[in-house]
Design a protein that fits this description.
Layout: E1 9-10, E2 14-17, H1 24-32, H2 35-38, H3 49-54, H4 61-65, E3 74-79, E4 84-95, E5 100-107
């Protein structure tokens, strides 16, 4: 499998892009602080912005440096009309032998249908 990494993808309404450090507060308030986002997972909602860094290990230098790997798939889901992230899509367990990547996402409740 030829990995492409987190390449930018654009639709009419959404921009899937790499995260930036200034996305952290928006992801926390728009998505990760809501218990309903985590309801059917084994994870608990984050209680504060610091939990994202300290407990989940996201938005650290190492987390951002991982974008250098071609098998790193982690997109901010940005709603173009507000120009802010409303969720995340990411690839887990890239398997070169099976030529597969498991996709998962988290989306802020305000944008559920």
């Amino acid at each position: 499998m030829e990995h492409k990494g987190t390449v930018q993808i654009e639709t009419g309404r959404l921009l899937l892009r790499k995260f930036r450090p200034d996305d952290l507060p928006f992801m926390y308030y728009n998505c990760w602080s809501d218990p309903d986002v985590w309801k059917f997972t084994r994870y608990k909602p984050m209680r504060c912005v610091e939990d994202v860094v300290n407990n989940a290990g996201m938005f650290t230098k190492e987390w951002f440096d991982a974008y250098q790997r071609p098998n790193r798939y982690c997109w901010a889901i940005e709603l173009k009309s507000i120009r802010k992230p409303i969720g995340r899509m990411f690839g887990m367990h890239p398997d070169d032998k099976e030529e597969s990547v498991e996709l998962a996402y988290e989306l802020g409740k305000a944008w559920w249908n």
